[in-house]
Amino acid sequence: MARALRKTAGVMGAGAGAVALLGLGYAGITWYRYGKVGRGGPRDPLVDRFMPKYEVREVHQTGVAAPADVTFLAAHDLDLQRSTIVRALFTGRELLMGGERSKREHPPGFLAEVLALGWRVLAEEPGRELVIGAVTQPWQAEVEFLGLAPDEFAGFKEPGYAKIVCTLAVTPSGEKASIFSTETRVVTTDPQSRARFRRYWSVFSPGILLIRYEILRLVRREAERMAALEPTAVPELGALSVRSFGAAPGPVSAPE
Questions:
Q1: DSSP label of 67
Q2: Which of 2, 54, 203, 240 falls 20 to 30 Å from 97 in CA-CA distance?
Q3: Which residues, in sequence order, are bridge partners of residue 125?
Q4: What is the CA radius of gyration of the chain?
Q5: Residue spans per domain, the chain
Q6: How far apart are CA 1 and CA 211, in angstroms?
Q7: Is 191 exposed, middle or buried (0-12, 13-18, 19+ CB in 10 A)?
Q8: How confident is the model at residue 82, as a pLDDT?
């Protein structure tokens, strides 16, 4: 019995060691690659208006068996807090960073929640793409997000911060098919902030990327579920406009 326990403990220890080595290796690679962002591939001109140069750029997409308007509605109304994976990752970050668990109540839906946290809509193409942004210090235990007007965000250069832009975009790929994509860009405002964010990204980027993949999965599942319903059962996007969640009235446009 004792021999079996020692053997089991040895296997578990070896497994934990392998995971730790993989984690350290990933962190090292991420540290080395930081700022070495490839400039190839399609660029989003709407996002380029706010952050043409960046230190981090992540683009993810998935095919969806649902019309573009249905997919966009599913993304717009996504409730991330219902995901066990996302909740576990947020809890892990709080434990590692020493922050207090947030007790704030946010309205359901992706856009409603991020706006309640302080993000702001920078630009939108109704029913097709939404661009949000915030100025923040993600390396802090208690993270606060500062939303700025589109022109202020584009020109913000105050030292000590990271600027983050995220998108939700849908492209039709057929009568009843679409491609859902997300893009995240980050740039810091001074060398000290760059060093801080580089350390943060090296450690936490795996979890952040898992959240992106979870968003893709959840949006695809919900959009395909909605598409399978009778057309009259799917709410119209107009009733859930981003402006109903506190963005400025009228069209939101990017700065010239």
A1: -
A2: 54
A3: 129
A4: 20
A5: 52-245
A6: 42
A7: exposed
A8: 77
Tokens of 205: 């980027």
| Cα 150 to Cα 253: distance, rounded to the nearest angstrom | 8
25-42 burial by CB neighbour count: b if 16+ within 10 A, else e? eebeebeeebeeeeeeee
Instruction: Determine how many CB atoms are found less than 10 A away from the CB of residue 190.
Output: 13
Tens digits of residue pLDDT in 14-41: 444 444 455 455 556 665 667 676 655 6
- Of the listed ranges 66-80, 207-221, 236-250, the one predicted with least confidence: 236-250
Residue type for 254, please? A
pLDDT tens digits along 134-191:
999 999 988 899 999 999 999 999 999 999 999 999 999 988 999 999 999 999 999 9
Q: Which of 101, 111, 57 is nearest to 80 (CA)?
A: 111
pLDDT computed for residue 51 by the predictor? 96
Topology of domain 52-245, per CATH? Answer: Alpha-D-Glucose-1,6-Bisphosphate; Chain A, domain 4 (3.30.530)
